[in-house]
Design the sequence.
């Protein structure tokens, strides 16, 4: 038997291609015979299309133009709701909404054609504020209520702490913009693109193009980052490329430039969370009342499930005896907000973990001690009533994070540093330091009954050369999917990883193993492949009539059997026993298991400029089992950095419903100097709800940085940061408000 | 306009408008698609190449300006299927995730190493400040550059780094 691959640093399978420039991303495909597409969009957020005017001076016979009228089937991109058209026909619901498409033999001509089309829109009043939308009775795409215990419990509390926390949109800024190439062949439509979820596209385009699904094939190209941004949006792009290609009679490629990608594609949902928490004098939580409002934008897209994950994480890893969470996602006239790493959880966790720091202060406890008194331990339950048995690590990650970060010592040292600030010389007088933490958990896999509904299929195929091919639709977008799935398959088969082939998916070959989202790939599909491997070996050995203990024997037999005919073994997801979820009442096991984490940020603020530099970051998490330490650490470090960006720098500025700062010069993501050393520590307690004991980790690191940073700013400056990003301007105005004597904690009262 | 250049040691000539971006000339006219577009305005570094031994953002260089120069792209780093030490260290440490920033990152870092630049954390981060990576959080890239630097110019006092640290 081969050494086990799981738990080792198998090098990234496609690493060499990516390091030599050989990896083929969609815009690297040959351009021979390919036409290029461009999109004509509305520049107002709401209105009625009066006309689409063509500049008569343009050579229109050299290009093709497609509008809603040219759609052969139903003009809709179906997702959770069938409300979003592929091209606006009459009404405009958001700025940047696509109205017409053009394709031409060159990029330059396509751009000129798009500029020669003018969409005349009669503007209508737009709703560009979620709170106002709610008040005006705008559509609520989803309303969730979670209830636990006694709704009147707050009456028995010694004190009530209230606060409202706000967060902005966040743009994905994957460095490779969205791109898709469509081509019609004898066998139907072939799409090649930068994407996370090939089967979303297969399932969505049939009705639009009036084609059976088996004539739609999706091939994932090397994909330059996704973070959720290439979950649902590529379906729209695929529809556009397919329509243009049919009209042009050529393959058509659409690749957005950075400005178009930033303006038109989805972003993290902005919104606010209001907390009202009842406490005993000795610092126990009696009740929690949470009101979550997310701005969904103009169409539903994935907002209900983003909201759901947000609501389910709103009371965190605490044993709250009485809780009520009300969560709503409301329609506005912003471009639709969509999936972004963390999927609603970072928003509610930011609010909760910042709020709890205020609660701690009010009862005269440290944030650490307050959390310790309330965190979930075996025997306690989450807000949905979920009992996690022994699969709880809240206190373990807290203790480890305190130790690894030297939390108490540094806090004392920073207090001393800040106390001496006034006595220092020059610019150093303005420096203040702070340290803060956040404790959280993150549900692994799809929410609720999602995994059961998906019923993912994945498997293995023996090839005539004796290697084994992984069959799954999971996509590699940077996180190491191909490598980790090969490791799981290898261990299931009892073969070394170099006998496994793991490639980018092509729906002509790969079964539907569900989307690459929700930190589900390693846990769910990895688990399936481990099982598939064991069963595949048993099948091959049974057919051979003998055991095949060495890799050479086993592979020779695979080659022999594969030479005689297809040698495949596909398995299907089965829910682990004992999981119950009541979608209607939001009761029960929202996730089969959770990863647990405690993050600590140490930072320095310049009170003259308002600028914050994170000095050091400690990320401790319990993730069941680490499948590949290098890849897993890389996921954490990358997620932490995006979290730092969301907390401090990344500020989407809107003007009349359009993103105003849609360039990388004006929308700032963390660079090398902005990013601190990030110390990653894993605790491993393999759980029994996946064969390898691993929990998802992709999204987890996005949850902790913002509240840890907000709490560190509180420590450094004595102000409560209730809105992120805490840009330099916001920090300065909060400091000014504090100096002017206005209470820095206006929302709290006894 | 006819523009002769040497790209990765190969003499080439293209006939393109003088203002066409070198990035597009490399990718579309010459097939060196390893060089990537990320922003088109000099902010992300994905398009970084070396022109006559100096780093440049190829999205900001008009083709005419590259006439008669020697250009090196990521495709010119490995020789005869042997990875450059820096590529090797990126693979070992996990310095590349989605890979789209990687070619530019490698070119910028190679330039630093070949000029014998310092390897301390602050210097490496400063040198690479114009190259944005959205995936890695930079930690492993810094590590890869430092390891490669030490391997390429082994210091007497410093032991040559092995495989995993
Ligand atoms: S594409 Fe040249 S710097 Fe971004
Ligand atoms: S590896 Fe994806 S942007 Fe750097």
Sequence:
């Amino acid at each position: 038997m081969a050494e086990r691959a799981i738990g080792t640093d198998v090098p990234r399978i496609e690493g060499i291609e990516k390091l030599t420039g050989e990896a083929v991303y969609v815009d690297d495909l040959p351009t021979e015979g390919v036409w290029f597409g461009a999109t004509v969009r509305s520049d107002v957020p709401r209105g009625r299309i009066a006309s689409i005017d063509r500049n008569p001076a343009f050579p229109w016979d050299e290009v093709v133009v497609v509008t809603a009228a040219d759609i052969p089937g139903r003009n809709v991109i179906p997702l959770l709701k069938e409300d979003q058209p592929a091209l606006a026909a009459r009404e405009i619901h958001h700025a940047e909404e696509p109205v017409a498409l053009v394709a031409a033999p060159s990029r330059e001509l396509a751009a000129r054609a798009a500029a020669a089309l003018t969409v005349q829109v009669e503007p209508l009043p737009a709703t560009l504020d979620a709170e106002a939308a709610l008040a005006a009775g705008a559509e609520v795409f989803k309303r969730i209520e979670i209830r636990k215990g006694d709704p009147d419990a707050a009456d028995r509390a010694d004190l009530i702490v209230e606060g409202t926390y706000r967060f902005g949109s966040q743009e994905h800024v994957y460095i490779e913009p969205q791109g898709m190439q469509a081509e019609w062949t004898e066998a139907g439509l072939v799409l090649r693109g930068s994407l996370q979820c090939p089967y979303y596209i297969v399932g969505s385009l049939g009705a639009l193009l009036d084609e059976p699904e088996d004539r739609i094939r999706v091939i994932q190209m090397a994909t330059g980052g996704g973070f959720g941004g290439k979950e649902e949006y590529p379906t729209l792009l695929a529809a556009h490329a397919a329509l243009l290609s049919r009209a042009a009679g050529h393959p058509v490629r659409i690749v957005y430039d950075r400005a178009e990608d930033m303006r038109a594609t989805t972003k993290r949902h902005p919104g606010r969370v209001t907390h009202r928490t009842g406490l005993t004098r000795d610092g126990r939580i009696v009740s929690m009342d949470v009101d979550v409002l997310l701005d969904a934008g103009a169409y539903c897209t994935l907002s209900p499930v983003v909201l759901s994950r947000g609501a389910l994480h709103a009371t965190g890893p605490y044993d709250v005896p009485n809780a009520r969470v009300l969560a709503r996602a409301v329609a506005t006239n912003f471009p639709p907000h969509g999936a972004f790493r963390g999927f609603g959880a970072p928003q509610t966790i930011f609010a909760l973990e910042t709020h709890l720091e205020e609660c701690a202060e009010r009862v005269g406890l440290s944030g650490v001690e307050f959390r310790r008194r309330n965190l979930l331990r075996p025997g306690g339950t989450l807000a949905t009533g979920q009992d996690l048995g022994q699969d709880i690590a809240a206190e373990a990650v807290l203790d480890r994070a305190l130790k690894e970060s030297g939390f108490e010592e540094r806090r004392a040292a920073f207090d001393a540093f800040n106390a001496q600030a006034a006595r220092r010389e020059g610019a150093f007088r303005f420096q203040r330091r702070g340290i803060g933490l956040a404790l959280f958990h993150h549900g692994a896999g799809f929410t609720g009954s999602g995994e059961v509904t998906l019923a993912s299929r994945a498997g293995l195929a023996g090839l005539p050369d004796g290697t084994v091919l992984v069959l799954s639709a999971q996509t590699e977008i940077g996180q190491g999917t191909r490598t980790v799935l090969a490791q799981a398959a290898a261990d299931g088969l009892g073969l070394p990883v170099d006998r496994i082939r793991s490639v980018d998916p092509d729906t002509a070959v790969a079964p539907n193993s569900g989307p690459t989202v929700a930190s589900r790939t390693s846990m769910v599909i990895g688990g399936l492949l481990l099982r598939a491997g064991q069963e595949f070996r048993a099948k091959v050995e049974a057919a051979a009539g003998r055991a095949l203990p060495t890799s050479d024997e086993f592979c020779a037999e695979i080659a022999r059997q594969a030479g005689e005919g297809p040698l495949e073994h596909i398995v299907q997801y089965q829910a682990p026993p004992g999981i119950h979820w009541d979608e209607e009442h939001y009761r029960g096991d929202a996730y089969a298991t959770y990863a647990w984490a405690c993050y600590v940020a140490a930072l320095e603020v310049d009170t003259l400029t308002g600028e914050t530099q994170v000095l050091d970051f400690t990320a401790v998490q319990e993730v069941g089992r680490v499948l590949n330490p290098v890849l897993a650490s890389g996921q954490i470090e990358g997620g932490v950095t995006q979290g730092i960006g969301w907390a401090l720098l990344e500020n989407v500025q809107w003007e009349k419903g359009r993103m105003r700062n849609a360039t990388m010069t004006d929308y700032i993501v963390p660079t090398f100097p902005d990013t601190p050393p990030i110390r990653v520590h894993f605790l491993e307690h393999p759980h029994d709800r996946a064969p390898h004991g691993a929990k998802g980790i992709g999204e987890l690191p996005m949850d902790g940085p913002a509240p840890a940073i907000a709490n560190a700013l509180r420590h450094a400056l004595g102000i409560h940061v209730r809105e992120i990003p805490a840009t330099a301007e916001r920090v300065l105005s909060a400091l000014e408000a504090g100096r002017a004597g206005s209470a820095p904690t206006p929302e709290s009262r006894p | 306009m006819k523009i002769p250049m040497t790209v990765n040691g190969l003499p080439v000539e293209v006939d393109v408008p003088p203002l066409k971006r070198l990035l597009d000339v490399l990718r579309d006219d010459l097939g060196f698609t390893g060089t990537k577009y990320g922003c088109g305005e000099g902010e992300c570094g994905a398009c970084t190449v070396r022109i006559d031994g100096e780093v440049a953002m190829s999205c900001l260089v008009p083709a005419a300006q590259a006439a008669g120069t020697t250009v090196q792209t990521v495709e010119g780093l490995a020789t005869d299927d042997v990875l450059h030490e820096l590529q090797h260290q990126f693979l070992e440490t996990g310095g590349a995730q989605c890979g789209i920033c990687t070619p530019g990152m490698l070119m910028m870092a190679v330039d630093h190493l070949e000029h014998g630049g310092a390897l301390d954390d602050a210097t490496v981060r400063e040198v690479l400040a114009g190259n944005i990576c959205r995936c890695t959080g930079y930690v492993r890239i810094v590590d890869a550059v430092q390891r490669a630097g030490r391997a390429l110019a082994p210091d007497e006092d410093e032991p040559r780094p092995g495989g995993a640290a």
User: Anything to note?
Assistant: Confidence is low (pLDDT under 50) at residues 159-165 of chain B. Chain B touches chain A through 56 residues (CB under 8 Å). The helical segments of chain B are 22-29, 85-93, 102-114, 121-127, 139-152. The domain at 85-152 of chain B is CATH 1.10.150.120 (DNA polymerase; domain 1).
